[in-house]
Amino acid sequence: MVVIQSTVLSLRNLLDDLTQCGWEQAPPRRLVFAADVPRRGGNHAMATSATSRDLTGTFLEAEGLWMRETHGS
Q1: Is 15 in contact with 62 (CB distance < 8 Å)?
Q2: In the prediction, which pLDDT does 53 show?
Q3: What percent of the chain has pLDDT over 90?
Q4: So where are the chain's domains?
Q5: Within 13 Å and on the Cβ side, how many CA atoms surround 34?
Q6: Nearest-CA neighbor of 5 among 35, 27, 43?
Q7: Mean pLDDT computed over every residue of the chain
């Protein structure tokens, strides 16, 4: 769980940094939100699994957006 949480936060911070520095190819809107970061504690195996799938989809969406904007596809 800690690895997933750290990875999601790292991705969010990277995307926020790209936006703040004015990189023209940064995503036009925020893609990772606080609600996307899995919480520790409790029995959240089902929620974590669903969150992981949602985050994978979000990451793939961001990657696809970047590829389209970069390569014009």
Answers
A1: yes
A2: 58
A3: 0
A4: 2-71
A5: 0
A6: 35
A7: 75
Q: Give residue 21's identity as a one-letter amino acid code.
A: C
Answer yes or no: is pLDDT of 9 > 80: yes
- What angle, 0 to 180 degrees and rounded to 10, lies between the N-to-C axes of helices 45-71 and 2-20? 30
pLDDT score at 57: 66
Q: How many CB atoms lie within 10 A of CB 9?
A: 14
Q: DSSP letters along 27-70, please?
A: -SS----GGGSPPPSSS-HHHHHHHHHHHHHHHHHHHHHHHHHH
- Distance, in Å, from the CA atom of 51 to the CA atom of 30, rounded to the nearest integer, reads 17
Q: How many residues does the chain have?
A: 73
